[in-house]
Amino acid sequence: MKTGILLTNLGTPDAPTKSASRRYLSEFLSDSRVVDPPNKLIWWLTLNVVILNIRPKKLAKIYAKIWDKIGTGSPLLSITKLQLQGVKKTLLKQHKNLIFEIGMRYGNPSISSALNKLHAQGCEKIIVLPLYPQYSNTTTLSTLDTINQTLDTINQTLDPWTKKPKIAIIEHYYDNDGYLQSLANSVLEHQTKHGKPDKLMISFHGIPQRYVDNGDVYYDHCIGTVKLLVKKLDLDESDYLFSFQSIFGREPWTKPQTKERLEALASNGVVHIQVICPGFSADCLETLEEIECENRDYFIQAGGRQFSYIPALNDRNDHIKMLIDLISTHL
């Protein structure tokens, strides 16, 4: 039996251009799991008349700053390819008949195209690992929506006697010991080079508070990650803070916010900050530009002196081993 291994992530524009950014934003912001407005008509008008005519040019300029920074092209896509190579290199030594693909929820290569490739190569089972440690309806469930839609399309082409591919999806791994140990290792290695900070800031991507109130477990998974990580690092409450970044729109989002916390810390005499973003399995726009550049400026301008970003786990050996162990439980 052939088994497909599919690694997925959020996605990226095809190029740091206005047209590519517009296509990406249109797909991303049209996902009702990501943006679920009370008035869909008003949102459609806002998106198509205002946002998609203004935001793409700005986004393209920001992407241009980090393009080719890690490998060739988009850092997120380049790193995901490296992660797949690392997983593939080891698993093919242990198991036969495995086929590997990556798929992005928005942009290319798409999840749909990856699933179709795996199906075309005869995979009867497909193991899907969304590279989101913390589960959220906005990410993991959105990925599952696309998987189900694609499988429905595939199934319509099959005759009644043909086996339909089975899906095993790894929904989260925020409490996985290998994941937490890899995070802890990255912190300790960074501090060996840059010293121990006054505070360690643990920053996650935010989501609307309304989503949490309606049952999304993402906030709980983030808090769980913080508790388990600081235990690994043996930190006191005075050693760290957690926060949420990447706020969008006017409605309330999960708090406290990274920008506000950094400015408050600097104003209160904290001079050395290090930031880690455990929710990002690969470095991307939100880490390389938003944290390492934009939020660094907020901290320094408010009176801080030393700021450093601890890179995402990317293709670290201990991270790749953890991904392999996650996948292996389904083989």
Tell me what the structure shows.
- The chain folds into two domains: 2-173 and 318-328, Rossmann fold (3-Layer(aba) Sandwich), CATH 3.40.50.1400; 177-310, Rossmann fold.
- α6 (177-194) packs antiparallel against α11 (317-328).
- The protein has helices at 18-29, 40-66, 75-94, 111-120, 137-156, 177-194, 209-213, 218-233, 258-267, 285-301, 317-328; strands at 2-12, 98-107, 123-130, 166-169, 199-205, 240-245, 272-276, 306-310.
- Helices cover 50% and strands 17% of the residues.
- It is globular, with a radius of gyration of 20 Å.
- β7 (272-276), α10 and β8 form a beta-alpha-beta unit.
- The chain has 331 residues and is an alpha/beta fold.
- The strands form two sheets. It has a four-stranded parallel sheet with strand order 2-1-3-4, sandwiched between helices. A four-stranded parallel sheet has the order 6-5-7-8, with helices on both faces.
CATH class descriptor of the largest domain: Alpha Beta
Give the CA-based shape: globular
CATH topology group of the largest domain = Rossmann fold
N- to C-terminal distance: 11 Å
* Structural class by sheet pairing and helices: alpha/beta
Give the tally of structural domains: 2
Low-pLDDT residue spans: none
Radius of gyration: 20 Å
Q: Number of helical segments?
A: 11
CATH architecture of the largest domain: 3-Layer(aba) Sandwich
Largest sheet properties: 4 strands, parallel
- SSE run: EHHHEHEHEHEHHEHEHEH
Largest beta sheet: what is the strand line-up?
2-1-3-4
Strand segment count: 8
Mean pLDDT: 96
